[in-house]
Design a protein that fits this description.
Layout: E1 2-6, E2 9-13, H1 19-25, E3 49-52, E4 57-59, E5 70-72, H2 76-91, H3 107-114, E6 138-140, H4 150-158, E7 165-167, E8 174-176, H5 193-197, E9 203-205, H6 209-217, E10 221-227, H7 248-258, E11 262-265, H8 266-287, E12 293-294, H9 299-308, H10 322-341, E13 344-351, H11 355-360, E14 366-367, E15 370-371, E16 375-378, H12 379-389, H13 410-413, H14 420-429, H15 436-444, E17 452-459, E18 462-470, H16 472-483, E19 491-495, H17 515-531, H18 541-548
Parallel strand pairs: 1-5, 10-11, 10-13, 12-19, 13-16, 18-19
Antiparallel strand pairs: 1-2, 3-4, 3-5, 6-9, 7-8, 14-15, 17-18
Helix pairs in contact: 8-10, 8-14
């Protein structure tokens, strides 16, 4: 605790970890490119620099608060310093802003406008690096990179993947995969967290909206869509809503307005996943083999395990993800109708996750040149389509999901947040075995944003140990502990993104990435869960009809082989 003097005013500070936090808490929006509170302090951009009363220029992100320290955040010297940094960045930047996916939301663009940089004193340097389109999920454009290092840090510190790094030195430095590999050739898991922290258009979502427009305009194609739970608590942020505000009805109405014939709920196939996965779990427990069972819903985690821990392939659930299960069910449901109508069914997924694009493109999910899911659009891409067509988000009247595949349980809804898959399985496994209050205590033990959550339950005389982990580096550490014999579990839920799908690489990027944003989005899903009468996946009558109907004697198609 202490007091600093900021721009002539005394400002008290308490537990802020750096001067930058004190300045921002005092109501001054100090600019940064490379600072994220959840990443290590790198201090590369120097935009947060301030001047002390002694005339020293210091980076406020990397300096701790000091009692009695007097600083100036906008002295003539500091103002010129920041403007020169911006000019130098712009001189080495592809300024084709009108065609950039990040235009209007680019931090470099915003700060250039804020500091009135209408002209640049420095000669433009165009090195014309090749744009990397190799990934199914994201596009890397080195010409728009400002070398802030955010992508490198999130990939290494949060995900433990290290697919990106600094190459060369001085003015020749670039950020890319090692050995001049493309993203597709690297160990990138397609999670898209690099895109979330990138302040410019150097890393962006691979835009597939044109494929959807083409399908919508083709009279010989029937477009049907599935909406993932996490999309409905984040899309509204693109239109001025608060994180966690539920916009399900508006999304359905908008998709219908775009030309989608029917709109269904991915939480239904999440219910199918719960049943298939819990059956698999109980069978493995009875045989005491291939434990712990790792969940398979997150494609970034699956890719990570395939690359780094191939020996765990037998421990990962054989269940397809809810997205791919729905694709399988819909192909079966519409096969006869397609022949009768002389149309092709185009299955569109609206997902919070960039890795879902890569998942849908996996060869095992294509049969006779037909993909189980034709195109995956992220939440951000759906927002692009909405804005393009000029729909007024606030004014559109809500519509309900279509039947029969528009009904999901509360257990299916909470798949979108960390701990949700585990809780959904527990709701089924513990059904009629514990009282309501005891169940709530158990469910709460797997909720929240702690890096690793552990719990144990007794079922039929056997203690079952469970773990929930999010962030691939956390998962990596947990696996190492298991291999050393320090930890032991029966079921482990893994989500690549911090917070789960609610913070996926395809979600809207908040102005400041905070724990609070994730909590609000997760809270939106739990709010939906409270309003749904069907709480458990096996109580969903539509699931039972699917098993008795289109998937009768075909349950093996819901699994990877």
């Amino acid at each position: 605790m202490g007091t600093m003097i900021i721009d002539g005013k005394k400002i008290a500070y308490t537990n802020q970890k750096n001067i930058l936090s004190v300045i921002r808490d005092s109501g001054i929006d100090l600019p940064t490119f490379c600072y994220h509170s959840e990443l290590s302090i790198y201090g590369a951009c120097r935009m947060c620099s301030v001047e002390t009363s002694k005339g020293e220029i210091i980076a406020s992100c990397s300096e701790k608060p000091k009692d009695g320290l007097e600083i100036y955040t906008n002295s003539p010297r500091i103002r010129n310093y920041r403007k020169m940094i911006l000019e130098l960045l712009l001189a080495n930047h592809d300024k084709d802003c009108t065609s950039c996916d990040r235009t209007g939301r680019c931090q470099l663009q915003k700060l250039a406008k804020r500091y009135g940089l209408n002209r640049n004193r420095f000669t433009q340097i165009n090195k014309n690096y090749e744009v990397d389109y190799s990934s199914h999920s994201i596009v890397r454009n080195p010409n728009k990179c400002i070398k802030c290092g955010d992508c490198v840090m999130v990939c290494e510190e949060i995900q433990g993947v290290g697919a990106l790094g600094f190459v060369h030195r001085g003015s020749d430095v670039t950020i890319r995969p090692a050995f001049n590999k493309t993203l597709a050739q690297s160990n990138c898991v397609n999670c898209g967290q690099c895109r979330i922290v990138c302040p410019t258009g150097a890393i962006s979502i691979k835009n597939e909206t044109q494929k959807v427009w083409d399908a919508l305009y083709d009279k010989n194609i029937r477009v049907i869509a599935q909406i993932a739970p996490a999309v409905r608590v984040a899309l509204g942020e693109e239109f001025g809503k608060n994180p966690g505000e539920v916009t399900t009805g508006k999304i359905v109405a908008i998709l219908k307005k775009l030309g989608v014939e029917e709109v269904f709920d991915t939480s239904l196939s999440a219910d199918i996943t719960v049943i298939e996965e819990s059956n698999e779990f109980v069978e493995r427990l009875s045989k005491n083999e291939n434990l712990p069972l790792f969940t398979s819903c997150c494609p970034a985690w699956v890719k990570f395990a395939e690359d780094k821990y191939p020996e765990l392939s037998g421990n990962i659930s054989s269940c397809k993800s809810p997205q791919q299960m729905f694709g399988t069910v819909l192909r079966e449901a519409y096969s006869q109708k397609d022949m009768e109508d002389g149309k092709d069914t185009f299955i569109l997924s609206i997902m919070p996750c960039t890795a879902k694009k890569a998942e849908a493109a996996r060869p095992e999910y294509t049969h006779d040149d037909v993909r189980e899911v034709d195109v995956v659009l992220t939440t951000q891409e759906l927002a692009i389509m909405i804005k393009e067509i000029g729909i007024k988000f606030d004014d559109i009247e809500e519509e309900a999901m279509d039947m029969p595949f528009g009904t999901g349980s509360g257990a299916g809804i909470i798949f979108g947040t960390t701990g949700g898959v585990t809780e959904a399985v527990l709701r089924r496994v513990l059904k009629n075995k514990y009282g309501k209050d005891d169940c709530e205590i158990i469910y709460n033990s797997v909720r929240g944003l702690e890096s690793v959550k552990e719990t144990s339950v007794s079922v039929d005389g056997r203690e079952i140990k469970l773990a929930v982990v999010h962030g691939l580096k956390n998962a990596d550490n947990l696996i190492r502990q298991i291999k050393k014999g320090e930890k032991s579990y029966d079921l482990i839920e893994v989500m690549a993104c911090t917070g789960g799908c609610i913070a996926g690489g395809g979600q809207p990027v908040p102005k400041v990435i905070t724990r609070e944003t994730r909590m609000l989005r997760a809270g939106g899903l739990y709010k939906i869960d409270k309003t749904i009468q069907i709480k458990n996946s096996d109580d969903n009558y539509v699931v039972n009809k699917i098993y008795e109907g289109v998937m009768k004697n075909k349950r093996h198609m819901l699994h990877n082989h």
